[in-house]
Amino acid sequence: MNVYEELSAFYRSYAGTKRVIGKSVLGREIFALHIGSMRGPQVISQYAIHGREWVTGLLALYHVRRGLPRGGAWILPLTNPDGALLSQEGKSSVPAGATFSWDERELPLWKANFNAVDLNVNFDARWGRGTQNMRAPAFANYIGPHPFSEPETQALRDFTVEIGPAATVSWHTKGEEIYWNFFQPPLRRMRDHKLAKAIARSTGYLPVTLRGSAGGYKDWCIEKLKIPAFTVEVGSDALRHPLGRETLPQLATKTLDVLVDLANELGR
Q1: Are strands 167-173 and 72-76 parallel, antiparallel or unpaired?
Q2: Which of 2, 117, 133, 145 is least buried, going by the fewest C-beta atoms within 10 A?
Q3: How far apart are CA 81 and CA 114, in angstroms?
Q4: Three-class secondary structure of residue 167 per DSSP
Q5: Domains, the chain, ordered by start
Q6: pLDDT, tens digit (0-9, with 9 covering 90-100), for 158-201
Q7: Dist. CA 29–CA 259, nearest whole Å
Q8: Which candidate, 50, 18, 21, places its Cα nearest to that of 34?
Q9: 109 and 241 Cβ atoms separated by less than 8 Å
Q10: Which residues, including other chains, have CB under 8 Å from residue 183's CB and lie 6 or more apart?
């Protein structure tokens, strides 16, 4: 069973509040599951926006089962289902009739969606100004023809605006770091750094001041919505992409209380 099938089965069986927020380029559903209460601060926690980081989609299930004693969170376990399957299964995941001509040797490390757009540089937050940005389709770092050119980023944008979360968390691999900054003014920078330190206490990961990136979901949430937003890079840097299922116990142990602790901080 691939990651999309596994998450689809979990979604169908989930008894809590849930919805499909959109579809990928190839028409695969993008799921959202709610945990905790609809009262109090709400968080959006999204996973696997990079295809090769599909293991974070399975990590999301640990976070769903952990639940929230305070506040609520929407869990989006697989923001980039097409990219995840390209990394996990290669060209066999491409349906008949779909045109795909990329080097199959690149697919295990594939970050982009099916259109070869890196979704995490496709948001309208200083779009195109990242130091590693690409201007042509590629397995990683291509910004797309314009911000929000992709159905996946459109769906995540629209859902985020609708929910109006108090904060967002994006789960990536790897390096055991927390990215939290994006040109905030001083008071918001102090607020967001304080929350980043709360996540650090939960995980043992290091809060890092990131430079040279732009166009990410975190960046857009900070700059345009003016809310705290975090990228959490799970897994030791000694591991190799793509991280497999065997890493899940370690990843879960270190991250299980992140959403709980963040909700507690937001509710103070």
Answers
A1: unpaired
A2: 145
A3: 9
A4: strand
A5: 3-96+103-266 (3.40.630.10)
A6: 999 999 999 999 999 999 999 999 999 999 999 999 999 999 99
A7: 24
A8: 18
A9: yes
A10: 126, 222, 223
Radius of gyration of the chain (CA): 17
- CA 252 to each of CA 55, 65, 203, 216: distance values in angstroms, whole numbers, following the listed order: 11, 11, 10, 24
Structure tokens at 70: 């305070």
Tokens of 202: 């939960």
User: How far is 1 from 5, CA to CA, in rounded Å?
Assistant: 6
Specify whether the CB–CB gap between 45 and 63 falls below 8 A: yes
Would the pTM count as exceeding 0.90? yes
Two tokens, residue 235: 């897994």
Got the DSSP string for 211-235? -S--S-HHHHIIIII---EEEEEES
Residues 6+ apart with CB under 8 A from 14: 33, 64
Q: Please choose, from the candidates 113, 158, 156, 118, the residue with its C-alpha nearest in 3D space to the C-alpha of residue 134.
A: 118
